[in-house]
């Protein structure tokens, strides 16, 4: 059984460390004293860099993590009696411990479906039309995750259709962009094309998974929604006193397109992984591979063997479903070692051909 080549794993893009460019800026920001609580030059430069990236004026707030970014952004859009329409697999629903509901003082998430982790205009409309009476939490926003939780990407056309529906129904648009960079690298689109030009009012722009130590940017394209947002951040414990150490590393990502190279590398490693796994008998790809994750189903015995060999990965998508994530510094050797380990584990457990066919149907 092949063990991981080193400490690299394919469990999460959060396993990766800080990229050199971000680290260099962390060190540079440490050179002297600076004004506290975000009034420093690093933070001003990082905000300006984000405006440059999106080619528009916008209001930017840096917070520590994505749960806070999403929760506070949605609480800026919603009153407590409002609701947010999102996909049933959305991170805000499945992985934020009720943070959006908590910080909005009770705004309810209304869950919709859609293939490949993507909310559809029809699903949004159906949820919106379901009730309009005083007894139901009033829909106020749609939240989209780009790239999605299952590693797919909304195309500009899909976003345009969602925007049209949201505008017609008077709904604001929030984007969870924890992996926006991966979506952009996948689409080859300009940042503005899939954000404010697609009607996104507020974007949670992910930095951590792209190579920062810590930090996400809440980007208000609809600046009216940002009213008093600084107070929300402070009250929620999200105002860093030494803000420059959160903001300066963003310059490392955004200057010289490091963030785009990081994302493109992660996506390329996911393609390599999918290409290596897909032909193996007993492996079944669960979703299109469009960003930096690969979802496959594997026989339970193979999962057990891979875990025993030291490979870590999540299996939260039902029996036999495995999520594999690549990152900005995932090495080809790591990918190839996982493919080899899977091939070996399959070889050790491969049942008779008829049984293979059955397990695929199951
Ligand atoms: C990782 C992630 C987040 C942020 O999670 P935190 O752990 O709170 O930083 C948000 N949305 C999606 C889709 C994610 O994958």
UniProtKB/TrEMBL annotation:
UniProt xrefs under InterPro entries? ArAA_b-elim_lyase/Thr_aldolase, Low_specificity_L-TA_bact, PyrdxlP-dep_Trfase, PyrdxlP-dep_Trfase_major, PyrdxlP-dep_Trfase_small
Any idea of its EC number? 4.1.2.48
Reaction it catalyzes: L-allo-threonine = acetaldehyde + glycine; L-threonine = acetaldehyde + glycine
The cofactors it requires, by name, are: pyridoxal 5'-phosphate
Cited SUPFAM superfamilies: PLP-dependent transferases
> Per UniProt, what is one Pfam family of this protein?
Beta_elim_lyase
Q: Which residues form the Aromatic amino acid beta-eliminating lyase/threonine aldolase domain?
A: 9-298
- Record carries keyword Lyase: yes
Entry GO MF terms: threonine aldolase activity
Task: Outline what the protein does.
Answer: Catalyzes the cleavage of L-allo-threonine and L-threonine to glycine and acetaldehyde.
Q: Which family does it belong to?
A: Belongs to the threonine aldolase family.
What is the protein named? L-threonine aldolase
């Amino acid at each position: 059984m092949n063990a991981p080549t080193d400490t690299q794993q394919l469990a999460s893009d959060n396993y990766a460390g800080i990229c050199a460019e971000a680290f260099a800026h962390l060190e540079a920001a440490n050179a002297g004293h600076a004004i506290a609580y975000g009034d420093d030059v690093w933070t001003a430069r990082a905000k300006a860099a984000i405006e440059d990236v999106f080619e528009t004026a916008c209001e930017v707030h840096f917070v520590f993590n994505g749960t806070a970014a999403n929760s506070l952004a949605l609480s800026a859009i919603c009153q407590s009696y409002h609701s947010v329409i999102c996909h049933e697999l959305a991170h805000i629903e499945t992985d934020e411990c009720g943070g959006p509901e908590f910080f909005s003082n009770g705004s309810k998430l209304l869950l919709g479906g859609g293939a490949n982790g993507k909310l559809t205009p029809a699903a949004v409309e159906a949820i919106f039309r379901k009730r309009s009476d005083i007894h139901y939490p009033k829909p106020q926003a749609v939240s989209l995750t780009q790239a999605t939780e299952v590693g797919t990407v909304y195309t500009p056309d899909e976003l345009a259709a969602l925007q049209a529906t949201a505008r017609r129904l008077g709904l604001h648009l929030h984007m969870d962009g924890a992996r926006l960079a991966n979506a952009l690298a996948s689409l080859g689109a300009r940042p503005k094309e899939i954000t404010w030009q697609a009607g996104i009012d507020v974007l949670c722009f992910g930095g951590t998974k792209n190579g920062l130590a810590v930090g996400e940017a809440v980007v208000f394209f609809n600046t009216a929604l940002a009213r008093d947002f600084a107070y929300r951040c402070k009250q929620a414990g999200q105002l860093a006193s030494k803000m420059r150490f959160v903001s300066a590393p963003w310059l490392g990502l955004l200057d010289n397109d490091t963030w785009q190279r990081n994302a493109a590398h992660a996506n390329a490693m996911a393609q390599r992984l999918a290409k290596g796994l897909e032909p193996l008998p007993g492996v079944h790809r669960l979703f299109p591979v469009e960003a930096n994750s690969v979802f496959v189903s594997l026989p339970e015995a193979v999962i057990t063997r891979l875990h025993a060999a030291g490979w870590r990965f999540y299996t939260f998508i039902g029996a036999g479903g495995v999520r594999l994530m690549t990152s900005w510094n995932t090495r080809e050797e790591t990918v190839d070692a996982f493919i080899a380990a899977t091939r070996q584990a399959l070889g050790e457990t491969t049942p008779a051909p008829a049984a293979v066919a059955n397990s695929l149907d199951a």
